[in-house]
Write a structure and sequence with these properties.
By secondary structure, this protein is of the alpha/beta class. The protein has two domains: about 120 residues, Aspartate Aminotransferase, domain 1 (Alpha-Beta Complex), CATH 3.90.1150.10; about 220 residues, 3-Layer(aba) Sandwich (Aspartate Aminotransferase, domain 2), CATH 3.40.640.10. The protein has 13 helices and 13 strands. It has a seven-stranded mixed β-sheet, with helices on both faces. A four-stranded antiparallel β-sheet has the order 9-10-13-12, with helices on one face. Strands 1-11 form a two-stranded parallel sheet. The radius of gyration is 21 Å and the shape is globular. The N and C termini lie far apart (about 70 Å). The relative contact order is 0.16. It binds pyridoxal-5'-phosphate. Pyridoxal-5'-phosphate binds next to helix 5.
Length: about 375
């Protein structure tokens, strides 16, 4: 019998993958510490949840779950198209925008190609690049954790197929100005797919913020990602969407899994988009709390980065993992950060009561040093 060389079980890029580490669930912390009443400010979730009209629509939809969902997601996509004033052919829905990030990587890039994204930015771009075995350049954010749009452009090579930019960014909260957005889209080589991830777009209040939807004509190969997980309070349902030219969206439809968005999630989309008053109440509340909580943190001698999201990235000036543990013991779950921002914690903005609890835990941590 001829000797057969043992092949590794998985290809090297799969070996490099790291399982996504989500925010710690409340139940897990309560079990571990034997406490109750813990709060979670770790995953940028909406503390008020979805509109009651959305909950009613989802409850009704549960009655139909013996059926497969609409594979084309027609009703949900039409509602999104109406909301954006764009044709339905320019919309694809995903099992969260996380799925769409992965799908974009698999659809538009192949081994040998290259991608550009920020550091620190959303970890799912790295996961998508690694899973598809595509090279990448991570462009550091600059002072004050702001985007360096020119550096992003400079990182583009002849092999670059995709550029991801989260605007506002996660975990820093930084946004790019409309001028920078225009510069980016008008300077990018035509063959690069620009992906503007607008997961936090609803929370942006800066005068110079603009959605990429306003400037799609500047760069044909542009996709805008949005999600119902954050402002719409539907993180657990897993619905996001991508919009862009029908040619690009058409390839995403070819590559997505059949029935990628479940029936209950599809039923949530139209009522969620129709109840803008519900979303606006949360967005306005978040904008006020962002100012109030950032000021309170600064008063403690801490440094929150400027944020356009529903969270603050805060420098505690010592190992964030230790601060994270101190806050955990006080029943407050936040999100520790990897190097080079490992003295920072990302803290989601919750209800006023939750934010106050976080602030007193942070104050105790500072005093206890
Ligand atoms: C939360 C988030 C998303 C949305 O994820 P879903 O899969 O839609 O829940 C996308 N991009 C960024 C930058 C995010 O922070």
């Amino acid at each position: 019998m001829s000797q057969r060389e043992q092949k590794p079980l998985v290809p090297p890029n799969v070996e490099r993958m790291i399982a996504y580490k989500p925010g710690k669930p409340i139940e897990e912390l309560e079990r571990e510490l034997g406490i109750t009443g813990a709060i979670k400010l770790a995953s940028n979730e909406n503390p008020f949840g979805p509109s009651p009209k959305v909950l009613a629509a989802m409850r009704a939809a549960v009655e139909d779950v013996r059926f497969y969902p609409d594979g084309a997601g027609h009703e949900a996509r039409s509602a999104i198209a109406r909301f954006l004033s764009r044709p339905t052919e320019e919309v694809v829905i995903g099992n969260g925008s996380n799925e769409l990030i992965d799908l974009i990587c698999r659809t538009f890039a192949a081994p040998g190609d290259h991608m550009v994204f920020g550091k620190p930015s959303f970890v799912c771009y790295w996961l998508g690049a690694t899973a598809t075995n595509v090279d990448y350049t991570e462009v550091p954010l600059i002072e004050n954790l702001a985007w360096d749009v020119q550096a992003m452009l400079d990182a583009v090579t002849p092999r670059t197929k995709i550029l991801f930019l989260a605007n506002p960014n996660n975990p820093t909260g930084a946004h790019i100005s409309e001028d920078e957005l225009v510069h980016l889209l008008s300077s990018l080589p035509e063959d690069v797919v620009a992906v503007l991830d607008e997961a936090y777009f609803e929370f942006a209040t800066a005068d110079d913020y603009a959605t990429a939807l306003k400037h799609l004509h500047l760069h044909e190969r542009t996709l805008v990602l949005r999600t119902l997980s954050k402002a719409y309070g539907l993180a657990g349902m897993r619905v996001g969407y991508a919009t862009g030219p029908a040619a690009l969206v058409g390839y995403l439809h070819r590559m997505r899994a059949p029935f990628n968005v479940n029936l209950v999630a599809q039923a949530a989309v139209a009522p969620a988009l129709e109840d803008q008053a519900w979303v606006q109440r949360y967005v306005d509340f978040n904008a006020e709390e962002r100012v109030r909580v950032a000021a309170a943190l600064r008063e403690l001698g801490l440094r929150p980065a400027p944020s356009q999201g529903n969270f603050l990235l805060v420098d505690f000036g010592r190992p964030g993992r230790d601060v994270y543990d101190v806050l955990l013991r006080r029943g407050v779950i936040t999100r520790p950060m990897p190097a080079p921002i490992d003295t920072w914690l990302r803290i989601s903005l919750g209800t006023r009561e939750e934010n106050d609890r976080m602030l007193s835990a942070a104050a105790e941590e500072v005093r206890g040093r």
